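Schema walkthrough. Field components (list of strings):
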Amino acid sequence: MAQYNLNINGKSLKVDVDTNTPMLWVLRDHLDMVGTKFGCGIAQCGACTIHLDGNAVRSCQLPVSAVEDAKITTIEGLSENGDHPVQQAWMEHDVPQCGYCQAGQIMTAAALLQQNPSPSDEEIENAMNGNICRCGTYLRIKAAVKTASQKL
Amino acid sequence: MTIVNTKLNRRSFLKVSALAGGGMVLSFSWLAGCKPTSKEMLEMPKEWFELNNFIKIGENGAVTLYSPNPEFGSNVKTSMPMILAEELDTDWKNVFVEQADFYPERFDRQFTGGSQGIRQGWTPLRTAGATARAMLVAAAAQTWNVSASEITTAAGQIEHKSSGKKAHYGELASLAATMEVPEEVQLKEIKDFKIIGNSKKNVDGVKILTGKPLFSLDHKVEGMKYAAIVHPPAFGMKLKSFDKNSVSGMPGIMDVFSVSLFNDDYNRNFFDTTTFPEIIAIVGNSTWEVMQAKKNLKVEWEKAQESTFPMAGRGGATITATVPAGLENTSSHKERMAEFTAKPGNILRKDGDPEGEFKKAAKIIERTYTAPFLAHNTMEPMNCFADVKGDKAVIYGPTQAPEFIMGTLVQALDIPKENIQINLSRMGGGFGRRAYSHHMVEAALISQKVQAPVKMVYTREDDMTSGVYRPTYTATYRAALDENNNLTALHVKAGGIPETPIHPNRFPAGALDNYLAEGWDIPSNITIGAFRAPRSNFIAGAEQSFLDELAEEMGKDPIDFRLELLKRAETNPVGKNNDYDAKRYAGVLELVKEKSNWNSPKDNVHRGVSAYFCHNSYVAEVVDTVIKDNKPVVENVYAAVDCGIVVNPDAAANMGEGAIVDGIGNAFFGELAFENGVPSKSNFDKYRMIRQKESPKKIEVHFVQNNEDPTGLGEPLFPPVFAALANSLYKATGKRYYEQPFAPQLEMQNLKM
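Field assembly_structure (string):
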């Protein structure tokens, strides 16, 4: 066990966990931030996507020891009132079915638009390809990313 | 005008005495933190008045509607309350929706599956809304001393026009809650619907998009422990022993023990399909720690003997079920299925003299179709929260079928059902998988053993390798043609491990003078269960691919050929018990023909069509494929759907789009094989799921506009897409696709997948 000072959603938070604990479980079990979801544990499905210094990363493969100096954003901190353009676009297109993968989809989309505010269809498909949606809401996801890009 | 008697479903309209009075029915702590926050809604009232089990109204006019059925993404949590709100005649903006927990005393059929939620909920929910409205009207009549028949309602307002008296529902709610439940109520005319048919956003949308706790995996209480499980590595193996010491020193680990789902004398229900019910539980202080211990635990497994036990079969009668011994292989499955295909099956339906027609046929076409086992792969792995102390249990988890797991819980825990409360979490996907809720029993047994609240979580590998799978199937279709190329007889023989996929009274039965359907099945020890549109999800693809090939052989347009058959079934049906309406069936083909502009496709677009009836609904689909950079790309899918009245159109379209994506994904990639009882894939690195890039570029879902009562929607768009895709790929590549998944064959043709 070791003490870590983490910078999450603009707040400084302390945890005392095993060095190898992935950020996914630090967030979920130790910090009660459960918006970041567990899907596969091997960085294949994207449900656990968070931002590490603005980049979309899979928190299930990210040990706590590797992030101490980084700025972390989770779905809970993407916007103060749930009104990030990506969240608004998701609402407009009523994207979710079961909803489980959507926080990860949104975090991937928000990072994409941060780096590329006007992505082409192909760029959206490439960026979003790592996030599985078992309900098959892919078309709405793509449409929502486009809508959000127009609002940015 | 529709008048309904309230006696039939009376328990839903009468308050249960133990729960009445206080207003707040649900007192579980986690609800306190998840009240709706939408700015559009009214403030929470000071007091709630319960009009019936579905509806309570606050003094300020706010309305809480309980959504009875478990929500796994099919939108019932929004759509069912819309039906209540319509007949209650309230303003949707005033509505708070809460998930009802499992209360069989209060609600009928709290089950999500078989696409029956809206169909079977339709009249009870309308009646519940209309009953509450009638009680509000009666309260107004009494207060104002006027006749109830002169009172009108609209959007949560109540009015007596001639005297000019007005009130909102909240002002009358306390009196209305004391009014007698009327014996009969009048339902709205369909033309007067204001909420039904007008799209409403997902009531959990904001919480989903902001990461609020909604799923049982997100649940946490003070003092809660975490549990991981270890299940047998192969079907056919059972636990011999484990070495507790191999993990006892690891950080955060409290206890390791085994639990078993069934007592020896337990009469299993239809959903108790788990074949090897003993697992090991590891309990500790955090998910990560128990998952680490899981990797280190030393376990010895041994081959299991054959077991037999009483179980409810399909239809409910008790059968003696057998789990055979042995470690099964996909290669031997294929050999055995070929053997069964070659010998006579059980005759499920026979019209005319099919054998005679085949004997004198000028030409016989015979084709065999196969599909593998599939894993459901819900994005939220199986998990459950349980708090069992002494003779009381509270269970909060993802289940499609709380009613069916209750009996399993009772015998496993030895706690009477009155003392077991099952609360329903939103599910991160279901697709049939969570009708089999043994994860709830496992969590409850673990909690009972440690006498503390526990959250049990499967890893993805546990989820993918422990069942419950879609069975593997094969179907052989034969058609007899005379010298003029007329179809004279059709024969289908189909089976699977462990069930036949045949629905003997569905189309094309009824459209052919000479028809034979035979089924067979092979027992297995692999845990199987319902998967989105069970049986239909395979047989539709086989049947509709065969009809496509047959139409080509006969020189007919594939849509016209189907319409001819349906015309026969409509005007002069063959045999009895045909379980479809040929006219509605033809209707969706005609609609998809129009919407897809069938007769004039765009250049370089290869189209395939398919139509199927299941879950009381009719669907026709056209898939357009293009070959782009040596890669098959699904450019567009057109769907025409007749599911009667559509409650929430945009959400219905969303689900239709999802079913099409799901079907294309499974047709291209879905596959689980077995070697010595071990599933061939355990995570998404090997099990290929459809992703953004392979999704169709466009999907259009068109609903037939009619006033029929609603029928199924979650499943019916799924089965036909397999054949529409196969038929479209045939046009693109010149090759027919008989074996799912298609991707390996496309790669053999040097196409990129």
